[in-house]
Amino acid sequence: MKKSLFLIPLALPVAAVLITISPLGRLLLSPVECQLKRWQLPISLKTPKPSTSTPKQTTPALLPIKKAPFPCCAGDTSCLDKQILGENNQQADQKILLNSLDNSLQYLQTEAAAATYKRYQVPRINRGRVIKSLQRFRQLLFESKSAAELNQAVAKEFEFYQSVGHNNQGKVLYTAYFEPLYVASRFPTAEYRYPIYRLPPDLQDWERPHPTRLDLEGADGLQGSQGKLKGLELFWFNSRIEAYMIHIQGSAKLRLLDGTQTTVGYAGNVRHNYQSIGKALIDDGELPSTGVTMPTILEYFEKYPKKLDVYLPRDPSFVFFRENKGAPAQGSIQVGLSAERSIATDKSMMPPGALALIRGNFPFATDNGDIQHRTVSRYVLDQDAGGAIKGAGRVDYFLGTGKVAGDRAGVTVSNGQLYYLLLKD
Q1: Sign of the CA dihedral 118, 104, 418, 139?
Q2: 7: confidence class by pLDDT, cuts 50, 70, 90
Q3: Which of 277, 380, 403 is nearest to 331 (CA)?
Q4: CA–CA gap between residue 129 and residue 32 (Å, rounded)
Q5: Which of 266, 270, 291, 424 could form a disulfide with 250 if both were Cys (CB 3.0 to 4.6 A apart)?
Q6: pLDDT value at position 425?
Q7: How far is CA 388 from the centre of its chain?
Q8: What residues form DSSP beta bridges with 342?
Q9: Mean of the pLDDT values across residues 23-27?
Q10: Exposed e or buried b for every residue in 56-69, given b needs 16+ CB within 10 A?
Q11: Element containing residue 415 per DSSP (H, E)
Q12: How does residue 29 score in pLDDT terms, banded at 50, 70 and 90?
């Protein structure tokens, strides 16, 4: 359960499209044009912008496409998920993907899933079909000997539903999140002063509108014990920005001062929408209007720590936590998240627990510690939601735990595509 510190829509670069003519006079697609046609929403399915003179119509979040985006275009391997079997010279994560599938299948057997899918609006996507799709894909993971073989089987047996994106033409904005690893204390000390809090037992009885972040903890983040949060302190941190980052990411792994470790996860929140402090910094001219990422924001507060008292209170949202005693980060459907195999979407539009294929330009850590971006596809499970993840054109990608995952998440801002895979009827 995560929010994003920033939201920067990017425009994909415009490339010149070359068309060559064969000796027989037949038009052939260049590699660039092939990729554009392969991954964009088919023209016949694109939904026009609503006219001001006609009644507003609701655009479906997902549209079935007639042809799978496989096989890859010439010279393009971005449609292959080479991570599964380690074909990309990285450690294979087939077991992680299988675990993520099992987590979704566990959720889909619950009463909560049954109730959710009774309300789900996209035609022909129902809980039974989602379950059968996950079960068959699980079998294909064992049967396929390569990423190309898996894609071939998926293209043959599955129907693709493409997100209309934020432009009704299939363009989806990807950001990423992670589970931070911080040092914390179970008791307040002169150094560890900034707490996170348990869920108030009487939260449902709080008067509306709920108190804001400023009301609850004060401008300096130290006044929680003077009001409604007194006695609800869960852990203390020596850095206010670390405590706030847990609100943003929704979970954390903690190394305690006595040497033990534990985890915390989302338990609830006040009824105020998240407001981006990155946007506030841009609006005030503190940061440039382009190129702002999480590292940029953190560097700013390292340089100007007193500004935390100015900008953190501008986010009225406030999150409460529970100690999970080492359990992994948990998604909104109450199952563990899997590194690089779980996503967060707007659950008012997207099918919870379902199998999806994402494609975008994502950052990867190199052997020498640098970050390198590559356009890749990944099979993932939709298992989470987020305060800033709204609409058909937003996806948050879970990248795992710790510093490297955080470094990657902080620079993930990319347009791409999102598909849901349902076994053909």
Answers
A1: negative
A2: very low
A3: 380
A4: 35
A5: 266
A6: 87
A7: 10
A8: 381, 398
A9: 37
A10: eeeebbbbbbeebb
A11: strand 414-423
A12: low
Beta bridge partners of 173: 394, 415
pLDDT of residue 149: 97
How many CA atoms, within 13 angstroms, populate the side-chain half-sphere of residue 217? 27
What residue type is assigned to position 396 of the chain? D
Query: 21, exposed or middle or buried, with CB in 10 Å at 0-12, 13-18, 19+?
Result: exposed
Note the maximum CA span of the chain.
82
Which residue, among 244, 263, 260, has the nearest Cα to 252 in the 3D structure? 263
Residue 398 DSSP SS3: strand
What per-residue confidence (pLDDT) applies to 422? 98
Burial of 167 (0-12, 13-18, 19+ CB in 10 A): middle
For residues 74 and 65, what is the distance between their CA atoms, to the nearest angstrom?
A: 21
Q: What is the mean pLDDT of residues 152-181?
A: 96
Q: Phi first, then psi: what are they for 249, rounded to 5°? A: -85, -25
Where is mean pLDDT largest: 165-169, 184-188, 271-275? 184-188
Predicted confidence (pLDDT) at residue 379 exceeds the cutoff of 60: yes
CA angle 146, 149, 150 (to 5 degrees): 90
* Complete DSSP assignment for 88-115: TSS---HHHHHHHHHHHHHHHTSHHHHH
Three-state DSSP class for residue 290: coil
Please write the tens of the pLDDT for every residue from 74-109: 888 899 999 999 998 888 999 999 999 999 999 999
How confident is the model at residue 103, as a pLDDT? 98
Q: What type of residue sits at position 26? A: R
Q: Is 268 exposed, middle or buried (0-12, 13-18, 19+ CB in 10 A)?
A: middle
94 neighbors 137 (Cβ within 8 angstroms): no
Q: Which two tokens stand for residue 37?
A: 């046609």
Q: Which residue reads 């619950």 in tokens?
A: 110
Torsion angles phi and psi, residue 372, rounded to 5: -125, 130
- Close Cβ partners of 13 (under 8 Å, ≥ 6 residues apart): none
For residue range 346-367, what is the model confidence (pLDDT) as tens digits? 999 999 999 999 999 999 999 8
Residue 46: its pLDDT value, please? 62
DSSP annotation of 312 reads G
